[in-house]
Amino acid sequence: ILESVNGLKALSVGRVIVVNNRQHLNALGVILQVGVVSNDAVNRTFTALIICEKGNEEVDQKGEDSTALPHLYNTALNDPPGQAISTATQELLRLAEANPGGMATLDPVNDLQLKSVDVVEGSMRLRVLQDSLRDFNCIHSPTFAEQFARIKERMSVQEELDRLLFLVSDQSLTLLPEYHQRIKVLQSLQYIDSSGAVQLKGRVACQISSHELLLTELLFENVLSPLAPEEGAALLSCLVFTQNTQTEPHITGTLKEGIDRVLSVAQRIGQLQRDCGIPQTAEEFVGQFKFGLTEVVYCWARGMVRPATLYPVYT
Predict the structure, then answer these.
(1) DSSP bridge partners of 27
(2) Of 298, 161, 292, 164, whose CA–CA distance to 234 is shortest?
(3) Segment 50-109, tens digit of pLDDT
(4) Alpha helices in 168-227 (DSSP H)
(5) Which SMART domains match (predicted)?
(6) Are 180 and 276 in contact, with CB atoms under 8 Å apart?
(7) Strand order in 27-36's β-sheet?
(8) How far is CA 150 from CA 32, 161, 273, 313, in A?
């Protein structure tokens, strides 16, 4: 409806609306301002004055689905909050008091003259559902909103549980091939044996939160042993630094040898994963480890620069 010309015209300044979202339930309001997003005739923003209970004012809902309705079916308007402070609010209060059971809304077919098959069929189905819901005695219960909210929450939890159980079941073939591929990688690196029992290297990897394969291989190959503490800190900066740099850091000596060892181990792991069927090239695996911050971290670890001077370089 909102994508139609008549639907957009109907939502104009002064139009009385009924707002339903996570914050408001059947709140009566009036459109104060209509804004267009990026010269798009369809996507618009609406500023509205809404009657709401004290303490239930609009809050920031970023990241939430603001269109999700917290109820099944209810046309009763919210209680007026008391004395209004403007002419617009007074008019909304009058409308709310005159229509305690709900207000008639614009019909998309008869009022907005939308004649497409989808809209007509959808409108007819909506009327049938509304008529059937009115016959349900449960919706007239004073505690219906609370009861339905609890039921909806339990349904959401059960749906998520069913989805996760399916993903880890044998019936789900989406992750099964990758699972076997990664099992093959772990067996080749001797993290587990042929029966799936976890070996020493596997127990070490379990204690590492990220880049488990690379760090475990570096530890067991004693790559860090020849390095001074500040060199080790600088070398491991490749695990957290993600930005691409246009110039390579000027590094020599044991730290340069350490970088070469890290790249060699990463290349070996990446090639092994590729050979086991994982759809990532060895170059892509190696490319995630970047050494653009190595020289700066080395200088900082030696106390040659203050931490504050690192910030512009890092960003």
Answers:
(1) 19
(2) 298
(3) 887 776 666 655 545 555 555 666 777 676 544 445 677 778 888 888 888 778 888 888
(4) 176-188, 200-206, 212-220
(5) DSHCT
(6) no
(7) 16-19, 27-36, 44-50
(8) 35, 17, 46, 51
DSSP 76-114: PPPPP-SS-SSHHHHHHHHHHHH-TT--PPPPTTTTS--
Tracing tokens 């957290």 back to the chain, one arrives at 240
d(CA 70, CA 11): 23
- The residue ranges of the chain whose pLDDT is under 70 are 37-42, 55-73, 77, 79-86, 170-172, 174, 245-250, 305-315
C-alpha closest to that of 23 among 76, 90, 78: 78
Cβ neighbors of 230 (< 8 A, separation 6 or more) are 298, 301, 302
Reading the block at residue 292, the tokens are 């653009």
State the pairing for strand pair 16-19/27-36: antiparallel
- Tell me the HSE value of 102 on the side-chain side, using a 13 A CA sphere: 12
Identify whether the C-beta of residue 291 lies closer than 8 Å to the C-beta of residue 249. Answer: yes
CA 241 – CA 298 distance, rounded (Å): 14
User: Can you spell out the DSSP letters for 242-306?
Assistant: ----SS-----HHHHHHHHHHHHHHHHHHHHHHHTT-S--HHHHHHT---TTHHHHHHHHTTSS-
pLDDT in tens, 288-315: 998 888 888 888 888 876 555 554 444 4
Q: Find, among 105, 46, 51, the residue nearest to 77 by Cα.
A: 51
Structure tokens at 146: 């609370």
* Amino acid (1-letter code) at residue 68: A
Q: How far is CA 288 from CA 206, 231, 257, 283, 291, in A?
A: 21, 20, 19, 9, 10
Q: pLDDT value at position 307?
A: 52
Query: Closest Cα to residue 49, out of 105, 93, 7, 8?
Result: 93
